[in-house]
Each structure stands twice: as structure tokens, then as C-alpha cells.
Amino acid sequence: MTQPEGFLSNEITRRQWFGNAGKWIIAPALFSMPIPIESSAEPMSPSSEWKEAELFGLQHNSLIRRSVWISDLKKCTPESAISIDPKQGCWQSVDYEARYNDKELKGTMLMAGPETAAPPIRIPLKEKGWHAIYIGMKSFLGYGDTNAVKLKLEGDPCRWLLSQTIGMQTGSRSVVARADWIRYQIQDCFFRCVELNGQFLEIAQNRSGLVEPCAIAYIRLVPLASDEIRSLEARRRQKASGRLICMNDVFSFMYERRPTSKEEIYEEIFPFKETDYQAIYWCTARADNCLHPTKVGTILGTQGRDFPRIGDRYVAESMQFLLSHNIDPFATALEFTHKIGMEFHASIRVESFSVEPPWDRAYFSLFFRDHPEWRCVDYDHRSIARMSYAFPEVQDHMLELIREIVAYGVDGINLIFTRAQPYILYEKPVADAFRQRYGIAPQDTHERDPRLLNLRASLMTGFLRRVRNELDKSSKGGKRLQLSAVVMANEDINRFHALDLAGWVREGLIDELSPGPFGMNREEPTPIELPYFSQLTKGSQCRLCPTLRPTLVKVDEAMPTALDFYQKGANGFAVFDMNLFQRFPMEWAVWQQLGRKEELKEIMRRANLKPTTLQLRTLGGLVVGKYSPRWAY
Fold first, then answer.
1. pLDDT bucket at 73, cuts 50 / 70 / 90
2. C-alpha pair distances (Å), 307 with each of 37, 259, 290, 312, 370
3. How far apart are CA 583 and CA 571, in angstroms?
4. Which of 214, 186, 200 is nearest to 117 (CA)?
5. Which residues pair with 204 in a beta bridge?
6. Which of 451, 342, 469 is nearest to 403 (CA)?
């Protein structure tokens, strides 16, 4: 369905619409109500919007743009994949009517449930030239069930996972009214900007691993203006001045989607192509629990057969399948990342050797099991579940693992210190050295005695020197292999846990420092004391890239937080678990902007951070809204 220029025009802005949404009474049918306009609201004219907003789906008034609407999605191939009635192996076609303000849309959406196993379908996109592609996705299919689909344009190397934005704005409604309001929306989800040449779009259900339901209402194609095309091409040619890093924990997508092919590994990386993200940090090792075919450590998840969670079993099954088919997930990710022009670093969680039951069935380090004599010892002489870096044998083991990883051809090693501290306590090398120097046992002094902290730090710094030496020996062509470190939130916590950051920077051991919001342990989120780290790295060759976590930073707080950190000396950001959020249009769009530090204030002022939605009037021939059919269930 092609709409002429001006479709959905004469609208109030989305900002006004959502601003009033919480004041509307849900009892009357939404589509029969006049939409109020706040007299105090200042309309946002197109000329005052951020000029690149349409390139990321962050426009205030995107629906007034001339668009090509493909709303009858049953017109696809193969036709045998569509059924009017719900049944396994077919998409269910469901007629609907929807409204955005006083404009109406009719179409046929496609639905698939967690047991449907719907086959991929193809829909021809007959348009040519540069377009922004939007996908209409029904919000929340059940009680909290999200909507997820995989999309692939003809010629793409893999599919692209897309969900509706999770930060729905629902005002002050009651729980029941809010649930109805959300459930009867179609969210206008930005997908990507691409030059079309008449190719097809493949739509696939996310049907491996933890299968998700989906419901797609339409495809909307917005032609880009010539100045938008120039802006897009210029932006893709030159990265932003702020360094952006995606830290992919690797485990999550195996846990959720059970990948069994190279293409499914590409899916984790492909969305970063031609963005401002410069590097992927791929966590292939939790200590020596590895997600690659290691000869040094233990392959993560393959030792147990009775798993604590179904996702843990998916990790094991994924690794077993990939390796049995000669697919190395680490090598595959590295090759594809380099192919799209990005850096690839290997992350290692330096102390993730063990975990308590029942998770020990899935995460099992042979090194940890076989060498209890090299574990950390607390002040009361009890062995704790950590391997101590005070022992040369532990350092040797981890250096051997680093050599194995470096041989793949990585651009650097990223040491993650924030997940399972401590690393050194009162072990024999520490006790002997302390007694020799000071004539007393370390247990006989305070745990924060500077002498004890300095001794521990010297042992850990010795390990860092050895890592730096290994990387220097493997550096080729005058290109230094990078060493980066994710550390705790302030000087005191790092010092307590044997990390002499000032010494590392002073000696040139590390190239990048990423303080994160981590306290004395993983369960204590702690504000990053950025002025301390800024002063530490000022004038050095060490970049300061604080760790930001979308799980802790709300979407509307991301840009103000980044701007504040830039003003305090940050050079960029390592985004922890960004791979969990790249599927959500609004979150993904915002977190792509953080490298543009010179433009960030303007982007923050102009970008729209609320989803665009159409309200459903009928679904499957049933009127929804005033008297919800769902109330019966």
C-alpha cells in the first residue's frame, strides 16, 4: 500500500501525543477520542530536528514522511507458509485495523508462537534507491512476552534480530489499563538505512534456543532525501572521535539462541558494520573456561550433562555442534569482524575458574579441580574458590592460554578484573614474603595495611609485565598488540584488590583503562570516580574508556552520562553487554551516538526518545480497546 505525500500529516508531535497519553481515560475506545494538545507544548518543526534523526529512527515526526507501506504481508513466498488458522509450520495471517491520531491503516499481520516453527518467508521490496526501513511490530503478545523477528535483505551475510523497544512510555495508568494500552499497539520499529535495488526481505522466526513469539504488521519504506544520503555516507566513511567498544559476553547469545552455524555467529557482529563502534571485545574465556577449542583450558559447558538451566544446556549443545562441524566460534567471529573493518580483541575474565552448585555442573575448570594447592587463602587460613595469581604456576597457566588466544591473530587482550575478585590474599608466597620483610604474619596485621596491599599489588603487576612481554613478542609489522583492563570503580577498591593502576600506566603496560561501576564485589554497583582515572591517564598513551552498562544506564540517561564523562576526561566507552541491546531499536539508536562527543549535546537535545506507535482498532475481526476481548482470559 503506497501512500501519497502527506500521509499522516497535520498531526500533533509524538512528544505531545505521549505527553498527554497518561492523562487519557482508557475506558472509552481510544480511536473514538479526540486527541488533546497541550497549549504549553512547543511544537517541534522539521527544520529544528536533528538532521540525522531519520538515519536512526529518532525523528519526532517520522510517520508524516512519504512512505511506501507494505501492509498485506500474506503476499509473500512461499504461499504455503501462510495459514488463516493457527497451526504449526505456518505463519497465521490476521487482519487488523490501526490508527495513528485520525489516520487509519488496514492490513494483514503475520503471527507465530513459540511452538509454531514457522518457515522463513520472502517479501519483495520493489523500491530502488536509499530508504529507511521500518517494521511494524505488535507490542507484547502475551503477559510480558516480547516480540522478536529475524530479518535479512537479499545479499546480507546473515540475519538481523529485531525486537520492539522495551522502554515503553505508559504514563500513570493502572496496571490493567497499562497492559491493554501496550498490548494493543503496533510499534513503528526502525530497522536500518540501505540502498534498495528491488531485492526481497526475508522474515524468519527466532526459532532456535529460547524461542520467541512474533507478530509483524507491516514494512514501511521511507525514501531518504539527498542531504540525508550525503550525511549517511559521510558518517559511515569517518568514525566518531570518541572510541566505542562493544563488549560481547558471547555466553548470552549461545544461552538464548543455541547457534549452530557461522551465520548465526555473524548475527552478533553484523549490526555494528558501518557504525561508530571501532572494536568488538569477545569474551572467549572465563578464566580458563573457554568458548573456543582450547588445548590449555576447559571448553565451557561441555563437561556436565545435568544442567541447572535450559540455556546452560544450549551453550553446551551449541559448542558441541559447532566444534563437531569444524566451526570455531572464536575464529569465525574474528574473521568476520576483521572483514567488516573492525578491531577484534579477546576478553578474559581473570578469576572465573569456578562457581558453586548447581552451576558447577555446567562451568567446570579442570585446572581449578586439579590444583587446590594454588587457590586463594583468606586470613583464617580457609581456602576460597579462587586461583591465586601469587603462584607462578597460575600465572604460567594463564599466560599459556593468552598465547593460545593471541595465535588466532587478535588485535589485543582485554583483562576483565571486575567479575570475581579477589585474585591474591594470604597464600604462602604472600605470607612468606611478608614475614621475611616485616617479621610478622600478614594475618597479624589489618587487611588494609599498606605494606600488605603493596606486596599483593607487586605480585599482580609482575603478572601484567609478563602479559605485556608476551604481547610485545607477538606484535608484528610495528603494530603493538593492545592490552586493556576493566577495573573497579575507584582507587580504594582497586588498591584493595591488588591492582596498581598508577604503576601500570606509568610503566606503559596497558593501552586502555576501563573503570566500571563495580564495587568490592559484583553485587555492589558503585559510581565511577572518573576524575581519579582521568588524572591517572592524563598525558599518557593509555586511553580512558569507562565501562557503561545498558542494564544500569536507562536509554534517556545514556547521552547525558556520556557527555558528563567526556567533560571529565573520557576518550570513549566500553559498552558492557551491548550485544543484549542491539536488538531494541531505540536503545540501539541511542547507544550508537555516544562516540559523537562534539555533536552529543545537539543530538541529545533534538533526538526523540519515545517509540512511535499506532493503536490497534480491530484484530482478527474483533474490536479491541474499550471492551478488551483479552479480559475474558
1. very high
2. 55, 18, 17, 6, 22
3. 26
4. 214
5. 150
6. 469
Q: How far apart are CA 395 and CA 190, in angstroms?
A: 47
* C-beta neighbour count of 45 within 10 angstroms: 10
In 3D space, the residue among 304, 310, 311, 439 whose CA is nearest the CA of residue 369 turns out to be 304
Alpha-carbon gap, residue 272 to 225, rounded angstroms: 24
Phi, psi of 569 (to 5 degrees): 115, 5
Integer-rounded Cα Rg, in Å, for the chain is 27
Cell numbers standing for residue 622: 474483533
Residue 352 · residue 386 · CB < 8 Å: no
> Residue 423 contacts by C-beta under 8 Å, 6 or more apart in sequence?
350, 351, 376, 386, 388, 389, 417, 460, 497, 498
Query: Which of 369, 401, 414 lies closest to 247 in space, CA to CA?
Result: 414
Looking at every residue in the chain, the average pLDDT score rounds to: 88
CA–CA dist 331, 342 (Å, integer): 14
- pTM comes to 0.90
pLDDT (tens digit, 9 = 90+) per residue, 568-577? 999 999 999 8
- Nearest CA to 203 out of 110, 283, 270 is that of 110
Residue 622 in contact with residue 629, Cβ under 8 Å?
A: yes
C-alpha cell at 112: 507465530
- Residue 604 CB neighbour total at 10 angstroms: 18
H-helix or E-strand containing 298?
strand 298-299
**Closest to 457 measured CA to CA, from 505, 508, 423:** 423
Distance separating alpha carbons of residues 131 and 229, to the nearest angstrom: 9
- Residue 409 DSSP SS3: coil
The closest alpha carbon to 122, from 175, 159, 172, belongs to 159
Q: How far apart are alpha carbons 412 and 260 in whole angstroms? A: 27
Contact 456, 498 (CB under 8 A): yes
DSSP run (H or E) holding 19 = helix 14-21
Residues contacting residue 502 through CB under 8 Å, at least 6 positions apart: 536
Greatest Cα pair distance in the chain: 87
CA distances from 172 to 24, 27, 418 (A): 10, 14, 38
Tens of pLDDT, residues 150-198 = 999 999 999 999 998 765 444 445 665 566 667 788 999 999 999 999 9
Spatial separation of the C-alpha atoms in residues 447 and 465, rounded to whole Å? 25
* DSSP label of 112: E
**What is the distance between the terminal CA atoms of the chain, rounded to a whole angstrom?**
34
User: Under DSSP, is residue 395 helix (H, G, I), strand (E, B) or coil?
Assistant: helix
3-state secondary structure 136-205: EEECCCCCCCCCEEEEEECCCCCCEEEECCCCCCCCCCCHHHHHHHHHCEEEEEEEEEEEEECCEEEEEE
User: CA nearest 584: which of 149, 162, 57, 53?
Assistant: 162
Distance from C-alpha of 16 to C-alpha of 222, rounded to nearest angstrom: 23
Distance of CA 11 to the CA centre of its chain: 34
Amino acid symbol at 23: K
Q: Which residues, 6+ apart, have CB-to-CB distance to 558 below 8 Å?
A: 548, 550, 590, 591, 594
Phi, psi angles (nearest 5°) of residue 399: -65, -35
Asked if 97 contacts 105 with a C-beta cutoff of 8 angstroms, the reply is yes
C-alpha cell at 301: 559447558
Residue carrying the nine cell digits 610478622: 440
C-alpha neighbours within 13 Å on the C-beta side of residue 603: 26
